[in-house]
């Protein structure tokens, strides 16, 4: 059996959720969109079911997967509905939905629900991606309130740069949101992971942590005590010695500058390991730090074993997890941990959960 696998530590997931909730106060929606950032939405939601106040996903299809798996907690559709036809399903599955543009408002006004909807009204406080303009927020709230189709309205916004603690724009967004919603009743929700960890002024009734649940700190300079959830690992399946000057792999990107012992590892970009990772990207072999050398191919990659004489055939290779930070790999590869985690595929997923195995 191919040894490539993703180990998902559901105890760590719960630890991170609890940490987010206590740092923020109030309640927290666990964001499990995009298959829980690649970790498996159903497994993650079940693991959090005893703790989480609710879940957030991108779209109806993701919510339906959770409902079909027996998740009964509130589930928020972060992008709301894409067409009026989805409103029946929203009602049937008791989903909460974001309303972020006028067309969604019209769909709700024209709907005939048997029970009122729960809506999160999104205000654009400066990210300029989704949400009602600050000056349009009160009127949108009024229409939702008056249409008779909605019971609760939570007010929300989303930050563009909360992971940059020294940048003023998050404070500006908070102030704009507060001004736009002053005097309107209802709960508030501002903080994503970076807002939870770095912006106490954004802590209101509901947090919406995503990436931090999976143990990748959006501000890695601070040690916030998060635990990595996914370990992406495989094994050395062959070993070869290179003489000085010999090339390695596609494009001969790497040339041996000294006699080099190369470990061939069953992991490639078809598994989600980034092809853009350069020579020198950290990996760990049998718990010892070393480096990627040579271009990552579809099913295999190569690592430097020169300094690790005890390592060889069958050695365990960690691509990211507790020994190798996914943030560090992402930085080297010119991307973010979010993208690496979402991209993991083909490998076997194995779950650890002390509550289930106990
Ligand atoms: C994805 C998302 C989040 C979670 O963001 P993280 O940076 O992963 O914590 C929160 N709110 C909204 C609206 C989102 O789309």
TrEMBL record:
<dbReference type="InterPro" id="IPR011079">
    <property type="entry name" value="Ala_racemase_C"/>
</dbReference>
<feature type="binding site">
    <location>
        <position position="298"/>
    </location>
    <ligand>
        <name>substrate</name>
    </ligand>
</feature>
<dbReference type="InterPro" id="IPR000821">
    <property type="entry name" value="Ala_racemase"/>
</dbReference>
<dbReference type="GO" id="GO:0008784">
    <property type="term" value="F:alanine racemase activity"/>
</dbReference>
<dbReference type="Pfam" id="PF01168">
    <property type="entry name" value="Ala_racemase_N"/>
</dbReference>
<feature type="modified residue" description="N6-(pyridoxal phosphate)lysine">
    <location>
        <position position="33"/>
    </location>
</feature>
<comment type="function">
    <text>Catalyzes the interconversion of L-alanine and D-alanine. May also act on other amino acids.</text>
</comment>
<dbReference type="InterPro" id="IPR009006">
    <property type="entry name" value="Ala_racemase/Decarboxylase_C"/>
</dbReference>
<dbReference type="InterPro" id="IPR020622">
    <property type="entry name" value="Ala_racemase_pyridoxalP-BS"/>
</dbReference>
<feature type="domain" description="Alanine racemase C-terminal">
    <location>
        <begin position="229"/>
        <end position="352"/>
    </location>
</feature>
<feature type="binding site">
    <location>
        <position position="129"/>
    </location>
    <ligand>
        <name>substrate</name>
    </ligand>
</feature>
<dbReference type="Pfam" id="PF00842">
    <property type="entry name" value="Ala_racemase_C"/>
</dbReference>
<protein>
    <recommendedName>
        <fullName>Alanine racemase</fullName>
        <ecNumber>5.1.1.1</ecNumber>
    </recommendedName>
</protein>
<feature type="active site" description="Proton acceptor; specific for L-alanine">
    <location>
        <position position="250"/>
    </location>
</feature>
<comment type="similarity">
    <text>Belongs to the alanine racemase family.</text>
</comment>
<keyword id="KW-0663">Pyridoxal phosphate</keyword>
<keyword id="KW-0413">Isomerase</keyword>
<comment type="pathway">
    <text>Amino-acid biosynthesis; D-alanine biosynthesis; D-alanine from L-alanine: step 1/1.</text>
</comment>
<feature type="active site" description="Proton acceptor; specific for D-alanine">
    <location>
        <position position="33"/>
    </location>
</feature>
<dbReference type="InterPro" id="IPR001608">
    <property type="entry name" value="Ala_racemase_N"/>
</dbReference>
<dbReference type="InterPro" id="IPR029066">
    <property type="entry name" value="PLP-binding_barrel"/>
</dbReference>
């Amino acid at each position: 059996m191919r040894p490539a696998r993703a180990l998902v530590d559901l105890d760590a997931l719960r630890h991170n959720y609890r940490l987010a909730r206590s740092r923020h106060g109030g309640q927290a929606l666990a964001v499990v969109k995009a298959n829980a950032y690649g970790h498996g939405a159903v497994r993650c939601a079940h693991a959090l079911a005893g703790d989480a106040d609710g879940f957030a996903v991108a779209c109806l299809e993701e919510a339906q997967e959770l409902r079909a798996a027996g998740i009964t907690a509130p589930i928020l559709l972060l992008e709301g509905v894409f067409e009026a036809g989805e409103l029946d399903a929203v009602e049937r599955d008791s989903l909460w939905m974001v309303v972020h543009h006028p067309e969604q408002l019209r769909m709700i006004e024209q709907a005939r629900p048997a029970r009122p909807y729960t809506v999160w009204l999104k205000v654009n406080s400066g990210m300029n991606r989704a949400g009602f303009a600050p000056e349009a927020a009160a009127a949108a709230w009024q229409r939702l309130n008056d249409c008779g189709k909605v019971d609760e309205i939570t007010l929300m916004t989303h930050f563009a740069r909360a992971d940059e603690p020294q940048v003023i724009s998050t404070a500006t967004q908070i102030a704009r949101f507060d001004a736009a919603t002053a005097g309107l009743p209802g709960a508030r929700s501002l903080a994503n992971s970076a807002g939870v960890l770095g912006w106490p002024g954004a802590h209101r009734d509901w947090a919406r942590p995503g990436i931090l649940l999976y143990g990748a700190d959006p501000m890695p300079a601070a040690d916030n005590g998060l635990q990595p959830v996914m370990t992406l690992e495989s094994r050395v399946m062959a070993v070869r010695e290179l003489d000085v000057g010999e090339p390695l792999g596609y494009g001969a990107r790497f040339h041996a500058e000294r006699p080099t012992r190369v470990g061939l590892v069953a992991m490639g970009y078809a598994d989600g390991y980034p092809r853009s990772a350069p020579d020198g990207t950290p990996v760990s072999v049998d718990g010892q730090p070393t480096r990627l050398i040579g271009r990552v191919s579809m099913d295999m990659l190569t690592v430097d074993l020169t300094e690790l004489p005890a390592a060889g055939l069958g050695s365990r290779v960690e691509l990211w997890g507790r020994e190798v930070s996914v943030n560090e790999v992402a930085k080297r590869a010119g991307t973010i941990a979010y993208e690496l985690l979402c991209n993991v595929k083909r490998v076997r997923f194995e779950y650890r959960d002390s509550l289930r195995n106990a």
